[in-house]
Specification:
Chain lengths: 116, 109
Amino acid sequence: SQTIHQWPATLVQPVGSPLSLECTVEGTSNPNLYWYRQAAGRGLQLLFYSVGIGQISSEVPQNLSASRPQDRQFILSSKKLLLSDSGFYLCAWSVDGLPVSGNTIYFGEGSWLTVV
Amino acid sequence: EDQVTQSPEALRLQEGESSSLNCSYTVSGLRGLFWYRQDPGKGPEFLFTLYSAGEEKEKERLKATLTKKESFLHITAPKPEDSATYLCAVRVGAQKLVFGQGTRLTINP
């Protein structure tokens, strides 16, 4: 069965420091990978998605970037964190199939980021 | 603009008291509606996918239904362990889900 691992689970970082959140998926090949953010009192917002190695699509202009160096690895980064980057970050995966409407997105356990 | 609205924001029930959560949506072309359960501090857990109006899916005490404008998550005789935030999302592109704000459900024993 497929599993998704995301780390670190909790992170407290000072403003202006770099960020690296990592996510790996096991048990599947060529998954679609996603980074979502859930701010307090708000719904999940799609930040980035990737359909293959080196292929990154950005949904929202921001202080963050994403990379996919390997098929099942997805990394969320920032060079200099802002206070507004605080939130709950979720990695997710799906596998293409037909119909497209049935491609369920499965989420990891999330990473809490507090920028101080 | 694609939009998903869930109501109520919060719902408190007694154990065994059945009720329904609502998810209304406005999208240019529905390509699937998803329900997730999220426990505090955890990632969302997939519950159901609904593809077309009239479709229904069931899992234990939960039943999801879909019309052309909204979806309902019916919970029958809930237990305290059903307490969670329930999220609704619609697929608006091949890779994109738009989520509602969620309904925070509390079941009191």
